[in-house]
Amino acid sequence: MRQLPGRHDEALLALPFFEPRHVDLAHTVDRWCDAHIDLWSDCRADTDPDKIGRRVLKALGSDGRLEFLRPDASDSIAADGDLRSLCLAREALAYADDLADFTFSIQALAATPVLRHGTDEQRRRWLPDMATGDLAGCFAVSEEDAGSDLAAISLCAQRVDAGYRLDGRKAWIANGTIAGLYCVIARTGDGPGALGLTAFLVPATTPGVRVEPVAAIAARSFCHLVFDGCVIPENAVLGRVGGGFAIAMELLERFRMTVGAAAVGFARRALDTALARARSRKVSSGQLFDLPTVRATFADMEVQLNAAALLVGRAAWEADRGNRNFGRHSSIAKLYATEAAQEIVDAAVQLHGAAGLVADSVPERLYRQIRSLRIYEGTSEVQKVIIANTIDAQRAERIS
Length: 400
Ligand SMILES: Cc1cc2nc3c(=O)[nH]c(=O)nc-3n(C[C@H](O)[C@H](O)[C@H](O)COP(=O)(O)OP(=O)(O)OC[C@H]3O[C@@H](n4cnc5c(N)ncnc54)[C@H](O)[C@@H]3O)c2cc1C
Fold this sequence. Notes:
This protein has 400 residues and is α+β, with helices and mostly antiparallel strands. Helix content is 54%, strand content 14%. Strand 2 (156-160) and strand 3 form a beta hairpin.
């Protein structure tokens, strides 16, 4: 049984940001993580990220953790915009295991555009199998030369008699090696820059698609996708032609705060692990935790963790209450929480001394796993650009 305290901070769950159903969900996901301790051990032992990724996805699906992705789900997180639930789930999963959070979040990321913008036929065709974990999805927007600047996307979708023909590449795609469905943003050329982009749903079995696996700093399904004369029918268009940039931006705006939530989960695990170590480690004067500099480090970690969790809670609450400008809070939450988590994890390694660098120890794993959060779904620098751009509008709102 788990020796560490709970994966959520009960005092934060008691704040008015959350309703009783959110507290229930947080506890349910906590219990689910406890019941799958063996699976998390296998995640660490298995050297085949595709095989273990599929197992985690199937466990999430068969235990109902992805039910909210069903087209007809009554408490649909993605369709109803309940980002508080999504954030609390990611927080617990990230605390339990990197792959648990990764698999859950990428499946939600891939399914959400179908939920929000798909036709009834598209929703009925793809979402039920995504909710059971029988079908993995991925969201493919980045390219080698279009990461932070999505308006520079060059994957070409050319109109042909049978529909559209895709030629080009996508880069750094999470879950791409196991996905059966790719949600792809490509250039249809109906307008310049961002205006000429369209979203497509592309089955992985479509002739002309090739997967190039990429080994990442933390083992996971990760790849580039190559499209070479890949023809898809007209009904593969998701949303409207020319609406791809808006779909991608809306999705990222919603999911950035959830990256912050995952960062809170990783950081809380690091803090709990470091505290257990500092309490048990003997130094000449007593416990490591008694040393003033060590206590000061824990105070800093505690403040950062609280601030991060509060910013994530606020962002999710702003989105759920229908604030049209919630994107600003989503960026603030992602920026602060991921940067703070990086510092907290680094401090945990330092507090462990050499033991924190041993391969596959908890601090060493967290050290590798936390790094990508400051990059994906918009780098920290890009979040600063977004936040700065909203300052004037926010001030004007306060004055009026
Ligand atoms: C683990 C992981 C999973 C990912 N999963 C996916 C996925 O599933 N689907 C997908 O489509 N993509 C995915 N990505 C790609 C990710 O979204 C991009 O890596 C990210 O947007 C940054 O783009 P880039 O790597 O091209 O870096 P670049 O855009 O080249 O940035 C390089 C540096 O320049 C800075 N920079 C660039 N532009 C600006 C600017 N305007 N202002 C200030 N600084 C700037 C950046 O902050 C960064 O420090 C994933 C990446 C990682 C690491």
